[in-house]
Each structure stands twice: as C-alpha cells, then as structure tokens.
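Team,

Forwarding the record for the chain on the shared tracking sheet. I've put the sequence and predicted structure together so nobody has to dig through attachments.
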Amino acid sequence: MSIIHTELIKGIELYQKNQYQLAQAKFKYVLSKDHSSLIAHRYLTEIALIEGTAKNHIAPLIAYMAAHPASSELSYTLGMCYQQARELPLAVAQYRHALEMFLDTPPIHSYKQQPKVEFDTKIHEALLWKTLALLRQENIKSFATAGSLLGIIREGAILPFDKDIDIGVDWGQMEQAITLLKSQGWHEHMRSYDLINPRCFAHPDGVTLDICGFGVDTANQQTICGLWMSDIPFEWNRITQYPTLNLVEKTTPFGNVWHLAQPELILSALYGDWQTPDPLFDTILCAKNIRSFSLLTQCFVYSRLYKLCLMSEWGKLKHILNQLTFFDNNDELIKKLTDKAESMPT
C-alpha cells in the first residue's frame, strides 16, 4: 500500500471520528503528492462545509469538475457549497445535475446508511419537560412541537425512533431562549446547519434539540415556522403555515409547562393523517403545510433525494416521491427517479 493511500485512509478515519483538523492535514498532504485525488478534494470540501467556509471551495470545485464531468458526488458537493454561500438558484441546479448524472452513471462505490444513534426515550422525555419547565419559569412562550408533540399526543411518550426533541418558541424570544439553553450546558450543534430557524443544540447527556421559532407573517397574519436562512429574500425560505397557536398550562413531574390547547390542529397541519404511524414520513420534505416549492425547499428536496439514491434506499425514495406534491407532472428528472425507484428491489 502506498504512503499516499495510507494517509488517505488515515484522513478518512479521522474525519469519521470528527477530528477534522487532523483529517484536514492528511488530505492536504495527499493533494500535495497527488492533486488529482477526488476523495481528498471531496473530504476537504466537506470539512469546509462543517466549518462554514465552503464558499472558498466553489472555484476550485468548478475547475476540478471539468476534469471529472461524470462525478455526481462532486456536483452534489458543489450544490452544498452554493447552498451554504446563499446562492440557492445555483445550488438547486447543481443538485438536479447531480441526480441526472447519478441516473446516467451511478457511482462505483456504494454507501451504507449510518447506524442510528441509541435513543433513550426516558432521558429525552425528562429533558424535554425539564427544559420546557425552565423556559416557562423565565416566561418564554414554549411548547413541544413536531415529532415530540406527535409522540406525546399519539403514543403518550416520546417516539422510540425519533432522533431529537423539538421545542417551539415565540420567534421574538428565540435569542432569550438560546441564552438560557447555553447557561444550562447546551451548545450549538454544527452551527445549526447554516439556519437561523430552527436552531440545533446538543446537551452533555447526548440529547439534541431543535428549537423552532414561530412567528406571524405581517402580510396575512398567518402563523409561520419553517427552515430559514439569513441574508436571502425571505420568500426563498422553506416556510410552513399553522393555525393560530393557543397555549395552556400543563403540570408535569418537572414543573408547570406550556402546552398547545389544540395540539391535534397543529399535528394535522404538519402531518395530515397524524394518527396513522408512518415511520418513513420525512417531515422536512413531506410536511403538508409547506407554503411553496421555494428555493430552499428545493435544495432540501433534491439533496435528500440524491442521498437516498446514493444509499440505495429505493423503498424510502419511492415512498417520499409518492408524498411530494410540488413537482411538475412533466418534470423528466422526477419521472426518471420514480421509474428508477419502482424498478429496484426494496
């Protein structure tokens, strides 16, 4: 095994252990000896995405793609860089291009889905109520939402296959809530994936939390939430619409909290038939209350579809394609994706 290959393997192992600076040094060494290393270029760009500096890699990626025009992975990575740089029209085009190339020339390497992290429902639920009680004490309007709310109302407990806890707060109190969370040992996770809403936090116990800001659209007085970025036109964001939120007090073993007075209305807006379990439901892509097929919505849709293709998750891909409602019936890319998903064993 050559020194270059050995260093590349070490870099990948360090990356997988989240030791990004050490991994970065390995990949830079590989490129100093072999500038054509596709893997080293891609991993260095992914580290830049984690650090928030992906904009600096756009020009080198474009140049590098000229030498590897059939690489769907490079096209996908460039799409992520454009998304982080707020160049959403270019990001959408690049994600779609990655899907087209994948369908025409699938990558040689296959990818496996990462094993799910153990989810201790007792720890998560206790921390949910403790956090809500603390927010209530500070008079911050807050409540369980999304998957956490679904579990509490439908199952009477946090869903066992969930991956985090979800708390909604008044958008005007987001910064106050974040300051309080940090004082309790929470730290922001992955820069909240370049979003200002929701904000993602991790707890020393291993629990992650999405804190979702709910506001009112001044144009129509509609209650809104969603996935929002800064420094882009607001209509580019993925905006979700809800009925008016009314809160009541609820007593828990950890203290009084606020709770939605009519949670079923919120669940119906988000999930549609929320009473029927659907473990394949993808809230980000398939939420029933997404306002429009905005640019950021498209970024999340096309990038997620590409990941499902890359991991050969054909059953889930087919399930999601059947639930998405924004697509043009004449979109040839979606037709080809659907045909591909239906032709593959699940």
